[in-house]
Amino acid sequence: MKVKKNKVKLQRGDVRIGNFVYHAEKEHYKVQDINGVFSLRLYGQMPAAMMMRAGLLNAQENEAFLHSYAAVMYNVLSCVPDEEFMKAINEAAIACVNRHKEFYGIKDDVTPEEDAKIVQEEKELEEAVQEAKKEMGVKE
After folding, report:
1. β-strand pairing of 14-17 with 39-43
2. Starting from the edge strand earliest in sequence, which strands make up the sheet with 14-17, in order?
3. What is the pLDDT of residues 92-119, one digit of tens each?
4. What's the whole-number mean pLDDT along residues 116-139?
5. Crossing angle (nearest 10°) for helices 63-78 and 47-57
6. 57-81: b (≥16 Cβ within 10 Å) or e
7. Where are the domains of the chain?
8. Cα(19)–Cα(10) distance, rounded to whole angstroms?
9. What are the distances in angstroms from CA 117 to CA 6, 43, 110, 137?
10. Is-contact 14 24, C-beta < 8 A?
11. Residue 65 above 90 pLDDT?
């Protein structure tokens, strides 16, 4: 998107929804307002970017969703957060993740064996990192 003489000129891959322009890049998805005040760029493998891509596949049909998404992100990212705001946003994000665990690859039931295996793998990884740092002479 370019703005010349107060006229918005869309570029290849741009989709305008109200005062927001979505743009698909090689590995990212971006939404920005036409005034250049707000810009959000997400890596394409993030669940939120995948959702954005799905919405853009049929932008006309998903116009209300895309506009709402951009407006909410604009409001959240443009606000000067206080402690109460951050707490509420964090609680809302946790609740959303819990409602859609399948998007994030979260399992409800992890067996004790799976848990023990994960813990052991993390311990081994940390030991390998510490050993590599020692060999390289890196001080902590």
Report:
1. unpaired
2. 14-17, 20-24, 28-33, 39-43
3. 999 998 898 888 878 777 788 888 898 9
4. 87
5. 140
6. eeeeebeeebeebbeebbeeeeeee
7. 2-108, 110-140
8. 12
9. 59, 30, 11, 30
10. no
11. yes
Q: Tokens 């036409």 appear where?
A: 34
Instruction: Give the DSSP per-residue string, the chain.
Output: -EEETTEEEPPTTEEEETTEEEEE-SSEEEEEETTSS-EEEEETTSHHHHHHHHHHHTTTTTHHHHHHHHHHHHHHHHS---HHHHHHHHHHHHHHHHHTHHHHT--S---HHHHHHHHHHHHHHHHHHHHHHHHHT---
Bridge partners (DSSP) listed for residue 2: 9
User: Residue range 25-37: average pLDDT?
Assistant: 92
Tokens, residue 40: 């959000």
